[in-house]
Amino acid sequence: MPETILELSDASIFQRETLILSQVNIEIQKGEFVYLIGKTGTGKSSFMKTLYGDLPLQSGYGQIVGIELQNLKEKQIPFLRRKLGVVFQDFKLLNDRNVKENLIFVLKATGWKDKSKMAQKIDEVLDKVGMKTKSFKFPYQLSGGEQQRVAIARALLNDPELILADEPTGNLDPQTSVEVMQVLQDINAQGNTILMATHDYALLLKYPSKTLKCDGQRLFEVVQKQQQAKL
Ligand SMILES: Nc1ncnc2c1ncn2[C@@H]1O[C@H](COP(=O)(O)OP(=O)(O)OP(=O)(O)O)[C@@H](O)[C@H]1O
Predict the structure, then answer these.
(1) How many angstroms separate the most distant Cα atoms in the chain?
(2) Which atom of ligand 1 lies at the shortest distance from residue 43's CA?
(3) Tens digits of residue pLDDT in 172-229
(4) How far is the CA of 225 from the centre of ligand 1 (A)?
(5) Probe ligand 1: pick from 16, 45, 171, max atoms within 8 Å of CB?
(6) Which residues form the ABC transporter domain (predicted)?
(7) What CA–CA distance (Å, rounded) separates 124 from 152?
(8) Which of 16, 54, 80, 129 is the most buried (most CB within 10 A)?
(9) Distance between Cα 41 and ligand 1 center (Å)
(10) Do the domain assignments include residue 165?
(11) Is residue 230, in this structure, part of any structural domain at all?
């Protein structure tokens, strides 16, 4: 039975009074890897922000990981974020502490108390992204690709039902982008559902998958053939 992790119907996305996207009708099923593409300024980040509760859904229906977006209350946002893993272009690691401490910070903030369980979880997520041996490094001692791997590990800490990655390779060179993408592919192969906003058409061609496109205030699915024709 497919499980719908994300569903929007007749939804509109606004930045204050400005309409960014309208008549959004999409679904993402458990286990899918979905790209979100579109020219700069077409609304990818606004869409992502709506999904993690940073922008209110002002009109239409939306549910994400079982939580309705249109009536989302301020106090439900931490609960929503705990069910999501969010990865940003600029990593957003805390520079004043090492990798392990960055992960402990998130675990504590999300209610974990048992030290041995925390250590076990940290080992597990760092292992998944190939960073187990670097847990004592500070972010500034790591390459961009390594920092993004740690950010992906951090997103995995609470076994998220959906990972939202907003331009995760945007600050990385092409080779490192492929390496980070391979980590995301491996995580997806292990059952994680991923929505990734990207500008990187080389990745789309190398790792074809379901693709949503923002264009002309609309968000719609495109097929790979069309993407290639437009390159
Ligand atoms: N805080 C804000 N207040 C008002 N308008 C905003 C705000 N943030 C973004 N916008 C506008 O919303 C539109 C969509 O921006 P958004 O950042 O969602 O696009 P994007 O597709 O993610 O672009 P990029 O690829 O450059 O990140 C743009 O016209 C932008 O100017």
Answers:
(1) 53
(2) 18
(3) 999 999 999 999 999 999 999 999 999 999 999 999 999 999 999 999 999 866 555 4
(4) 28
(5) 45
(6) 6-231
(7) 12
(8) 129
(9) 5
(10) yes
(11) no
Count of domains in the chain? 1
**Any idea what the CATH number is for the domain that residue 126 is in?**
3.40.50.300
Q: What residues contact residue 59 under an 8 Å CB cut-off, 6+ apart?
A: 10, 11, 12, 70
Paired strand residues for 221: 212
- pTM reported for the whole predicted model: 0.93
Low-confidence ranges of the chain (pLDDT < 50): 229, 231
Query: Residue 93 belongs to what domain range?
Result: 33-54+73-209
ipTM exceeds 0.90, yes or no: yes
- Nearest CA to 28 among 194, 159, 200? 194
- Residue 1 located in a structural domain: no
Query: Does 10 map to a domain?
Result: no
CB contact at 8 A, 217 and 23: no
Which residues sit opposite 196 in a β-bridge?
35, 165
